[in-house]
Design brief:
homodimer; alpha/beta; Rossmann fold; 2 domains; six-stranded parallel sheet; six-stranded mixed sheet; 12 strands; 21% strand
Chain lengths: 275, 275
């Protein structure tokens, strides 16, 4: 912290993706009326992640730390605790740190059950690949839950029905075209994020495929834009995750004797117009 | 900087607005393959802005600084220079610092001329109000250029045709309804940002007003979502502004004898389907 000032640090990868921005806006809105400054450290490699965790623990520059979507070794967790840098993690679980998580696999399952109940039998999945080694990617876990729930319903998601690409609207648009080019194209596509769902919707529009009549599309996140375009999606309370992270942090900073808390936020299918 | 590491700092308000996120993504992509870490300091008051500028100049924690959309006193500029903290400013101009700006007034003018040429005679403007005192808001300058160009064409934008609200899609939606409720509603609305233009489009959809037949809508920024929804807008090269800021910073860090540079980025009307 600057002399006489107090600081909360946020350590985050991909901080320009909308889901991160929403978490950050929950963090910054909650800190706005506090005496704490907000400093964000951008992580773009495993070396930087570990470098920051090592150094922030000792410099005493921060009063508290929020780590978003980064997995790190137990050795580093213990170091944060020994050095008394109060830390809350989002999208990561460690017994000894307060955490805020969702059950991504359950999220995939919710989507499968919804689509099966609406009569769909041929599915597609658009998700992430080529992900860097330093961060947590929920895309795979959402796919697992989706796939397992389909199997339990006697339905199969073949490998060619899974279209993975680096994260982004444009990449998802291309993958959706690939799925819609299959000899037996899907009647429902689950995208691992709202951004990717927008890419799928764009591909459908380009081909004149009617949504939801010919193709159902479900996203994940419930960004503000999901409401705007009428996207059916899984809401994961991103802003709230940031807000709770700050509250957990401040409550432990005020009273170190309080126990760590593990908060799992609920997922809800928000039904709009695309599925 | 951490021991042995080198850091570039970004000082920014509203860092969760899409236009800031796009600038940041230009900054982070350009720094990704450099030896520099990226640290973002969030400014939510004039006191924090000045506190950071004062302290970052002396702590030697940073190798370089990028300041986005903050206006600050000459005294603080001179302090940065004396302490040799190399600084680049975006959306602010000071003779002694490298800067990246656009001409917001010219941007408003471009929109007016385009809409007048397409036969519009009754206009509305949706922009920002209740803005905090520590940051730069281009909304007013875009309005000025818009209004002046209309006047030069013999057209008048009355006060009731100007609808201002705190920044946001929802607030813009409400303001658009107010404009469309006027006894003589506008046939064309210029929104000070794409986010606000989305709010205007939503209001039009809610009322069954056909865009662009009954209502033309033009935004400002050219966010990724503008292309997605087919929004006609003024492109301001946000990512590029972040990229150039890093390049200017690194070139001066490599050779302090190079002169400061003032870069004005061009504005282009991108014609899509809403006007």
């Amino acid at each position: 912290a600057r002399k006489g000032s107090r600081s909360i640090g946020v350590l985050a990868p991909f901080f320009t993706q909308p889901s991160f921005t929403e978490r950050l806006s929950g963090i910054s809105a909650t800190l706005a009326h506090s005496p704490y400054e907000l400093v964000i450290y951008s992580v773009d490699s495993a070396a930087r992640r570990d470098g920051y965790l090592n150094s922030l623990a000792v410099t005493r520059r921060l009063d508290g730390l929020i780590v978003i979507s980064l997995e790190f070794e137990d050795r580093l967790v213990q170091r944060l605790i020994e050095r008394r840098l109060e830390t809350v993690v989002i999208e990561f679980y460690h017994r000894d740190l307060s955490s805020i998580t969702i059950n991504d696999e359950a999220g995939g399952r919710i989507v499968a059950e919804y689509l099966v109940a609406r009569g769909h039998r041929r599915f597609g999945f658009v998700g992430d690949t080529d992900l860097p080694d330093y961060a947590i990617y929920p895309s795979d876990r959402r796919l697992q839950g989706f796939r397992r729930a389909l199997e339990e319903a006697g339905l199969h998601l073949a490998d060619e029905q899974i279209a993975l690409a680096p994260h982004g609207l444009e990449q998802a648009r291309q993958q959706a075209h690939r799925l819609l080019d299959l000899p037996e194209p899907p009647t429902a596509i689950f995208a691992a994020s709202d951004t990717q769902a927008l890419g799928v919707l764009k591909a459908a529009r380009e081909r004149g495929v009617a949504v939801p009549e010919q193709l159902a599309v479900v996203g994940f996140d419930d960004l503000e834009i999901a409401d705007y375009v009428g996207l059916t999606t899984v809401r994961q309370h991103l802003k709230e995750s940031g807000r709770i992270a700050v509250e957990l942090l401040l409550s432990r900073l005020a009273d170190r004797s309080r126990p760590v808390q593990h908060v799992e936020l609920p997922l809800t299918l928000v039904r709009r117009f695309t599925a």
